[in-house]
Amino acid sequence: MSSEFGHLLKVSVFGQSHGKAIGVVMDGLPAGEAVDLAQLNAFLDRRRPGKSALSTARREADAPLFLSGLENGVTCGAPLCAIIENSDQHSSDYRELADKPRPGHADFTAWVKWGGSADMRGGGHFSGRLTAPLCIAGGIAKQILARRGVFVGAHLASVGTEEDAAFPLHPTAELLDAVAAKAFPVLEDEAGARMQQAILAARQAGDSLGGVVECAAVGLPSGLGGPMFDGVENRLAAALFGIPAVKGVEFGAGFAAARSTGSANNDPFAVRDGAIVTTSNHAGGILGGITTGMPLTLRLAFKPTPSISKPQQTVSLSRMEPAELVIRGRHDPCIAHRAVPVVEAVTATVLLDLLLEGNHGNF
Amino acid sequence: MSSEFGHLLKVSVFGQSHGKAIGVVMDGLPAGEAVDLAQLNAFLDRRRPGKSALSTARREADAPLFLSGLENGVTCGAPLCAIIENSDQHSSDYRELADKPRPGHADFTAWVKWGGSADMRGGGHFSGRLTAPLCIAGGIAKQILARRGVFVGAHLASVGTEEDAAFPLHPTAELLDAVAAKAFPVLEDEAGARMQQAILAARQAGDSLGGVVECAAVGLPSGLGGPMFDGVENRLAAALFGIPAVKGVEFGAGFAAARSTGSANNDPFAVRDGAIVTTSNHAGGILGGITTGMPLTLRLAFKPTPSISKPQQTVSLSRMEPAELVIRGRHDPCIAHRAVPVVEAVTATVLLDLLLEGNHGNF
Amino acid sequence: MSSEFGHLLKVSVFGQSHGKAIGVVMDGLPAGEAVDLAQLNAFLDRRRPGKSALSTARREADAPLFLSGLENGVTCGAPLCAIIENSDQHSSDYRELADKPRPGHADFTAWVKWGGSADMRGGGHFSGRLTAPLCIAGGIAKQILARRGVFVGAHLASVGTEEDAAFPLHPTAELLDAVAAKAFPVLEDEAGARMQQAILAARQAGDSLGGVVECAAVGLPSGLGGPMFDGVENRLAAALFGIPAVKGVEFGAGFAAARSTGSANNDPFAVRDGAIVTTSNHAGGILGGITTGMPLTLRLAFKPTPSISKPQQTVSLSRMEPAELVIRGRHDPCIAHRAVPVVEAVTATVLLDLLLEGNHGNF
Amino acid sequence: MSSEFGHLLKVSVFGQSHGKAIGVVMDGLPAGEAVDLAQLNAFLDRRRPGKSALSTARREADAPLFLSGLENGVTCGAPLCAIIENSDQHSSDYRELADKPRPGHADFTAWVKWGGSADMRGGGHFSGRLTAPLCIAGGIAKQILARRGVFVGAHLASVGTEEDAAFPLHPTAELLDAVAAKAFPVLEDEAGARMQQAILAARQAGDSLGGVVECAAVGLPSGLGGPMFDGVENRLAAALFGIPAVKGVEFGAGFAAARSTGSANNDPFAVRDGAIVTTSNHAGGILGGITTGMPLTLRLAFKPTPSISKPQQTVSLSRMEPAELVIRGRHDPCIAHRAVPVVEAVTATVLLDLLLEGNHGNF
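^ Those are the sequences you sent over. The predicted structure of the assembly is below.
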């Protein structure tokens, strides 16, 4: 079992919600890359909780502390390690959970796998808090990619049954930036308003909502990836399912393609400004596991936050009998909007790894 | 770039559509496992083309030849290599394709990546024919799993807009066998009839259809997998996107969970016959990347076969100008129904790999 | 490029000599394993410098700080991260080195690979100081192994031309402990006295000495490892060459076997107390990449410390012309005796990884 | 357990001595590389047995059959699979071995690990015959390397106590070719004559001899590899220990460095023809796990062939009592001279993998 992904660039995440610190090691980063800390902190802020009634009140101080890998703000070729200290390590709220696994959480499976040794408090190693170090890695990757004309951005495509518009055929870097700058990352603010209302309604009902995040990467060269098991989709999917609560991933038209016809779904080739493009992009920028040079698009399904305040049916592990569980404290009634930068982060990290391998199969 | 997946059990596929042979190497198979060749051949027959008007007329002789790894029909601990000889290696039909990439195929991306060296004829290393060696690996894995009470089965959940019923909460091994025995692998034969009509209609229109395959694995112990990037979903997705034409994967409720609420989507725990179960299975048998012991369920979106006989817009690579392409020959108007055993094969292989690691995190 | 080794148990090291901290992430540790901190610190003390005239005066405070992976002193299944803060981060002594690569050091190759981005000060990521986090990992692995009757120990087999005795055919845990407890880790103290004199003489001459470390592991089950590229020797060698200054590794009789005959080198099998043993152990406990159950023995060649105070010939990178270099400051005139616990650490970590895979090829 | 090595270029070997065929899969080969079959067969001939009284009389037809990966003699980017059919698959000679493990062979450890399932006949997956597919991979790698000015060659440095001269400081491609062309691959033919006499004497005594192979690679760029666990030495050692009978590996001065002083062992830097070189090469072309641009040199210790005709002490596995074993048939009295091209092959394959990653740490 591994908390790591990547080939030439390996990213390894560590930490539990209530340990001393959480962090990330990036091994294989190219040297000589400046890391703009202000820009990185601004990126980290996008996933931070406690900013509105839409998310948990818990305060995090997510300023990363760099232990290695940077010299005067520039990567030096050695593994980069950055940590975030946990200011709030007490765990009294979680005592009841040790015996009553929360439905939809990993409490039960962690108990099966690790028994009494498992740190269930606050989700242990499964905690959404571990997406913070992922964002450190991804924020750095995004800066390195942007320097090469590759831009990664995402938006909240839906919450419950409320839907945002989809990205246009050619999202621009400006559009991606504009969405990122919004407090609620949607393309159409009216859709965003409806989503926020739905989230608040779910909170008032002691319930929660799922959502979908759409992510795009523009400026990628064609030729990245490969066929079979090491393609762009394989590698992105393998990493993206590491984001807590993700239950589905699709590229381009995805599941909609399964309802379509070949004549409608095939993307015709054309020549534009001396380059070969496709005039539609149902492939999501990937054919045969290899980038086409068109925007890479993917969509991720996030399940509703399992922590709800409504009473739930569970079992007592010690007595092996039914038990009712009421989860106390404040919890995010929806995680999908805060997951938007996390999706960008993981996508950017995988794409940087692919770029390091290059896009040609000869040498 | 790699044509391999797996951790303790590595599966590596080789071959091009028009080379001498295609094959598979399985490294890390447990020793002492009998391989029932009749059962394996019956499994391979399920994906074989040419059986009806629904699929291409091309004949394949898919009887595998075992070069290593078996002693008297039993695995011996050494890597197993099995090949299937290509009887039909001529490639004249594909000459036009060298200059005009087929929309929806990997011709263009292969040309970018490997230039003139790429074997585009018949799809090269991207060919659906490579799913045959995958089925050899998966057929062997299925036999080893079945001996331990783990059964993997799949059905065609939809073709275009025609839908089969979903698997019940607890699919039995008998149900999985019954679907596998059908010429058209659906749960409800009436739905199957509609699907077949839709496929034939697409063929007559010179078009093609996509579809969805649902797969289930029953009898898995709880505790397999792990959090973050090496979980059951990560590893299955990484391998499943290696099946040609897959554009999406979801586990349990998947994208439907994103439209749901926590109170509806959370699976309540209960005690049944001394074991902890959930009374619904929106999680698809996986929480926090670890199996719960409930049936593992997943759905895969297959895009419509890109080879259609309708004229299509493409470009001439040599002249960098628009070109029309008409693909000749007979091609599958839908690949999803033939992909059903392939999905079982890849799923079974990954699950065997996970089982070899065991389900406990202590030792 | 990777600062990591291991399969089921991945160990990743980070830090530069003059960064904020150095550390290690262990991913895949079994859960429920107590870590005795006093015992761990005692182990770390064995490699610490500044204890005598034989090593550099630089003070290190090597007490590890655990950021994750432990709950109440017991492993919890999540990745364990431990760091050691660098108290002494100034780097003024190293300014000259930026232009004049030290012979025998990685200054030149780091400059080629990473250019001006490379952190050359104090050896950067190549620093012997990174063996401290390796010892944290190995010290924990040793505790877990000892609980299962597997003991790993090493001694200084030679310094320059002065040689210690070799381990007996069956080193006991007591013998391994006794050597570990010595200030100078040799089997024969008279040989140790000669070695120390040789080291002091080298220091007085402004020179340095190499040495050989012999390591043994007793109590291993037979059946660990496998043939070809994933055998016990392959995996140990791959990790052991990660220790700075190692230029050779041999198992059992090693290079002496190359001068021997089959009749002398083959280890006859015999039955002792109901178990199959060999009556000699030229194989070093490994046949065909798989453990025999006899003690595993290996020897590592350490080159002389490249930092010597004698003037040396080098070049000025900026002017591409010859230059003389005098390395100032105090440096270890021999590294081999301090490397003894490091060799134990890496060996123990690899063996724990192998044990996690088990020793049988069926399941 | 894995029969594979490599990162971007993965090489996987399969086959047992008495199966239908043995073979190799190379995944990640660059496309567009011509494979000169005549040259490849000439290379394979160098390891073939039966050429003289010095080796076994068993005939092998080692002409490789390419199943995939080549188009008109040029690599196409898809995995290359080549097999060699086993003409001689009967195994009657090996019946006694099933109960009496041969000292020095993997019979015992294979029995422990795989029990009755293990194919012990002729060494199973441990057989020296599997070095033939390794030579196919290495022969192809050597051709690709030579096209880029990198030449890999080896010679027999010693047999028993008879020693050849060492490679000069700068072996030329011509020198490497000249040694390769010899029936007995030594630098000094007089030394070779003594070695051959020693081998014949060992055969007459029913015994066998070990030996050492020295390998060099010239023309490598500086900057390949990296520090810690993914360095050039780590990766070469991990693969080289996959060659049967290897018990030690050293780079540059290796174990001799351990008996030396820093002032003697450090390689001074100098400028020659505008390039930075070292005036000696005790480092074997590697500093800090990274190539210096000087010739890479390594030495491998091969133990004496364990198959000797003298009676040996073993045990009966079924009766758990002492037994005498006399191995019949003809066996190589020394394997080291036939291992020379195998060492070149594995070294070349690893170096090609490293070259594919490039020699710079930025991008």
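The helical segments of chain B are 37-47, 107-114, 131-146, 173-181, 189-204, 232-240, 262-265, 336-357. The mean pLDDT of chain B is 92.

Shout if you want it in another format.
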